[in-house]
Amino acid sequence: MVKKEIPEFILQLLAQRGVEDDVDIEKFLFPKLAALPKPDSMLNLREAAQVVRYFVENELQIIVWGDYDVDGTTATALLVNFFRDLGVDIKWHIPNRLTDGYGLNIRWFEENISSFSSKRFLLITVDNGISSYEVVRLIQNLGGVVVVTDHHALPEGEIPDCIVVNPEQEKCGFHREKMAGVGLAFYLAAAIRTEFPQRNDINMKSFLPFVAIGTVADMVELTPTNRILVRAGFEELHKPRFIGLTALLEEAEIFSGEVTSEDIGFSIGPKINAAGRLGNSQLVVEILTSDNPKSARKKSAELQELNQRRKAICVDDFSLAESMVSAYEVAEQKICVVAGKFHPGVAGIVASKLMELFGVPTIVLAETTNAAGGVTLRGSGRSVEGINLHEMLQQCSDVIIKFGGHAMAAGLSLEPQNLEKFTRALGRAIREEGARDGQKPVRKKSYDVACSLDDAMNPASIQYLMLMEPFGQGNPAPKFYDENSIVIQSRNVGVDHRHLSLMFRGRYSQYKGIGFGLGERLNDVQEKSQRSLVYSLTRNRYRGTESWQIRVHSI
User: Fold this and answer.
1) CA 2 → CA 22, 26, 27, 35, distances in Å?
2) DSSP β-bridge partners for residue 382
3) What is the pLDDT of residue 125?
4) Is the pLDDT confidence value at 331 over 50?
5) Looking at the 3D structure of the chain, how many domains does it have?
6) Sheet strands (E) in 427-543
7) What is the mean pLDDT of residues 158-168?
8) pTM of the full predicted structure?
9) SS3 of 78, please?
10) Cβ(121)–Cβ(62) under 8 Å?
11) Which residues have C-beta within 8 Å of that of residue 298, sequence separation ≥ 6?
């Protein structure tokens, strides 16, 4: 890598990420699988793999229990496909978000244990289980041996009394790696393969697309380890081995095989999540483990239909939530909490939109009917930079039935009569956190580097931008500033003329642009063609054609 060959604005972006000398630039732009930390340093991983070997060699029942989001479904699919390669037929289960809720439940085991191939069985959780101390004990009483693989924060109480693979444990050598649940599933599969040295024909790299999709969609921090895994997964997505992955890419109109983080974050991820949000996450695993191209395509089309339904529900619920919020109170209390007749499956999306609108941690709670026929409030929260939502919820745990999650996102449930008390307690905790040590919100610059449209849209520049992928937490997609762009065409597009379609004059060609939510700026833009703008580059896919265009954030 010759540093002088890299465009100056790319070097500036790398420097902002602490990547400046030649060696670090080489590692960042060309991450290698050989640089991954060794599995032996992951606490309890070898023990977990040895237990799996015992159950495989003795032909005993193995069950994988996942979660209904992208991380959980991709992790489940990864292990199902891996065991199939190993020649082992396993059972798998994803709970129904709307009727079962998050995590393990003993009822499923009591109802299904008669169908197990052996009285003694192995349960492997992926992306859940760390807060299920009591349920794990009950499963063990039924004859189960349990391996919990989870990346969520450790509960305040006891962790399950079983083999636990979770980097949140301080003694774990992966403690700082911020692994996704699907990343842990991959490491478990790799460790299991080493227990069967005669099966070195299994290509572990072929499973990395699942890791890439789950890690990016779950907004996990792109630590060096995650960056290596995701980039390798992107490479495998050029020509995925698994039929279901191909079907998902085709449904998203990705035919070149060159996938970006934006494709996962705004297209593939939301489609997968839609199934879980509407209570049909089993569909995702069925697609990703399918060995029939026709069936995989048909089910991918069903997934698209679910996503369209999810979008319509989100529009209605966001309008309702926004009408219930007082901007003045939100500004005063530094928190936004709404509860009402929302669809529980989209509460997280609505919370995210409200958080973006008001700039404060937000909780959206849906009224749901509990087993006793009463009402329980169940929903999701989203936080802002600098406020660890999971820690804030811990300070209110006395009025919460159940909660879990990360610094930036969490799920919870509580009794309606505790809503006001919960809101006061959470608001107080957040305000105290914000005031600690005289902290004041810092207004961030709206762009990363100054760069003309011509320089950014240069094919060589785009190639280097692709080498900076994956973008996400810890490596945000860059925004650029052009002080002297020239708009030669502009018009409104979309429902209610909500968006702005633009054409910019370049030195040698013209560039298409789109400004989502900027439709109201049309008259202003048409009055003056020379504009300053903050923008990013995005790949436009439409009816089998692909092209790069300008995504305008402000103009």
Assistant:
1) 8, 9, 13, 21
2) 362, 409
3) 98
4) yes
5) 3
6) 449-450, 480-493, 499-505, 510-515, 530-542
7) 95
8) 0.88
9) helix
10) yes
11) none
CATH of residue 64's domain is 3.90.1640.30
* DSSP string for residues in 82-95: HHHHTT---EEE--
The residue length of the chain stands at: 555
Residue 3 lies inside a defined structural domain of this protein: no
Q: Which amino acid is located at 354 in the chain? A: L
* C-alpha–C-alpha distance, residues 386 and 369, integer Å: 34
What per-residue confidence (pLDDT) applies to 111?
A: 94
Residue 528 lies in a domain: yes
pLDDT of 512-555, one tens digit each? 999 998 999 999 999 999 999 999 999 888 777 888 999 999 99
Question: What per-residue string of b and e applies to 91-107 under the rule 16 or more CB within 10 Å gives b?
Answer: bbbbbebbebbbbbbbe
Last residue of a domain, one of 438, 469, 498: 438
Rg of the Cα trace of the chain? 24
The torsion angles phi and psi of 58, rounded to 5 degrees, stand at -100, 5
Domain boundaries, position 421:
324-438
Question: Which of 383, 418, 438 is a domain's end point?
Answer: 438
- Three-class secondary structure of residue 362 per DSSP: strand
- Mean pLDDT of the region 467-480: 93
Residues forming beta bridges with residue 377, ordered by sequence position: 367, 414
The CA-atom distances, in angstroms, between 149 and each of 154, 175, 244 are: 12, 14, 24
Q: What is the mean pLDDT of residues 351-363?
A: 91
Read off the pLDDT of each residue in 239-259 and give the average, rounded to a whole number.
Answer: 89
Answer yes or no: is pLDDT of 1 > 60.
no
Mean pLDDT on 422-431: 92
CA distance 237 to 288: 13
Do 271 and 143 lie in a common domain? yes
Is residue 416 located within the same domain as residue 460?
no
- Please, are residues 150 and 129 in contact by the beta-carbon 8 Å criterion? yes
Alpha helices in 278-388 (DSSP H): 282-288, 293-323, 327-333, 347-358
